[in-house]
TrEMBL record:
It comes from Stylosanthes scabra. Keywords: Signal. The keyword Signal applies. Residues 1-30 form the signal peptide. This is Uncharacterized protein. The lineage of its organism: Eukaryota, Viridiplantae, Streptophyta, Embryophyta, Tracheophyta. InterPro entries: At4g14100-like. It comes from the Eukaryota.
């Protein structure tokens, strides 16, 4: 009788292990691979940018509704501020507001500003701890890694490899719906000479 009881115990234990494995595999199968959230149509974000040792504070204003993006860039311990206004038509203005320098470069990038769904088609790499956040991680076109907080779906960080340099961006604030007043988007007159 003891052998029969022992056999039943082993069989029932194996059955429990099998059922728990089956339950675990079905819960994994029912959790599809996450997709990155689309960017909101308008937001403001304060970001810290490290370009292989060059630190920058960037005020990022994204306004897809009006087809524009603005980066206000200040390098560490510098009083110089660079404005980078990008338009959806592909035109970008890089300028300073220093009345003595009046520097401006106009460039054309045919793609325009990033679309809210710019991460469509990115490859999911899994979850990682970034700073203090558990993030889903995606890779886009082999040189962009994007980290999104699992709970809030807010961007936490992105890393871009370009040439010999790494561009690491840490998101400090993320204000959905924030809009910069229209006059602040206008490049100065000396950009149009």
């Amino acid at each position: 009788m003891e052998k029969a009881s022992m056999g039943l115990l082993i069989i029932s234990s194996l059955l429990l292990v099998f059922l728990s494995l089956l339950s675990h595999s079905s819960s994994v199968a029912s959790n599809p691979t996450p997709t990155p959230s689309e960017w909101p149509l308008q937001f403001h974000s304060l970001i810290w940018h490290n370009r292989t040792g060059i630190l920058q504070k960037v005020d990022l204003w994204y306004d897809f509704i009006n087809g524009r993006n603005l980066n206000i860039i200040q390098e560490q311990l510098s009083s110089d501020v660079l404005y980078d206004v990008e338009w959806n038509n592909g035109t970008s203005f890089f300028y300073t507001l220093d009345p003595y320098k009046k520097e401006c470069n106009v460039m054309y990038f045919p793609v325009g500003i990033l679309r809210p769904n710019w991460l469509d088609g990115a490859t999911y790499l899994g979850q990682r701890m970034v700073d203090i956040f558990l993030c889903n991680v995606w890779e886009k076109v082999d040189f962009i890694r994007y980290y999104e907080d699992v709970g809030t779906k807010r961007p936490v960080k992105w890393v871009i490899f370009q040439g010999q340099a790494w561009y690491t961006t840490h998101v400090m604030t993320f204000e959905v719906g924030a809009v910069l007043d229209d006059p602040n988007w206008q490049a100065p007159l000396y950009c149009f000479r």
